[in-house]
Amino acid sequence: QVQLVESGGDLVQPGGSLRLSCAASGNIAVVYDMGWYRQAPGKQRELVATITSGGSTNYADSVKGRFTISRDNAKKTVFLQMHGLQPEDTAVYYCNVDILTTFRVRSRDNWGEGTQVTVSS
After folding, report:
1. Residue 89 near residue 82 (C-beta atoms within 8 A)
2. Among 24, 25, 34, CA closest to 96
3. Residue 75 neighbours by CB under 8 Å, 6+ apart
4. At 25, is the pLDDT very low, low, confident or very high (cuts 50, 70, 90)?
5. Which of 52, 59, 80, 106 registers the highest number of CB atoms within 10 A of its CB?
6. How many CA atoms lie within 13 Å of 6's alpha carbon, on the beta-carbon side?
């Protein structure tokens, strides 16, 4: 049982900024990769950014240079700092974590409920 709680979504004007947070809790022994995905209306969920436990990052081409993913390993929390937001960034943003549970089971399919980001004037 793993819980992921996202926060930070909001309505923002084009060019604005937001910072998303996602805190993981529950039966977690180790946290491996953490990531953010998004799903816009009528579209499939897509990768936004991921970060390994060592801090290596990967970004979708559409957000490179505008978004920054980071993590606090002690708090099992992942962040997504977003700058230069555009209407096409409007979506529900979900965090995902790859973990080893306290029962020594590897679990990658852990998702939060999502947080809505709307970019509109």
Report:
1. yes
2. 34
3. 23
4. very high
5. 80
6. 25
Q: Is 18:83 a contact under the CB 8 Å cutoff? A: no
Yes or no: say if 121 and 12 are a contact pair by the CB < 8 Å rule. Answer: no
Average pLDDT over residues 37-46: 97
Structure tokens at 111: 């998702």
Over the range 86-113, which residues count as b (16 or more CB within 10 Å of their CB) and which as e?
eeebbbbbbbbbbbebeeeeeeeebebe
As given in the structure block, the two tokens for residue 113 are 């409920």
Cα–Cα separations (whole angstroms), residue 62 to 29, 59, 121: 33, 8, 21
Report the alpha-carbon distance of residue 80 to residue 93 in Å, rounded: 10
- Assigned token pair, 121: 């004037």
Work out the number of other CB atoms within 10 angstroms of the CB of residue 83: 14
The one-letter amino acid code at 34 reads M
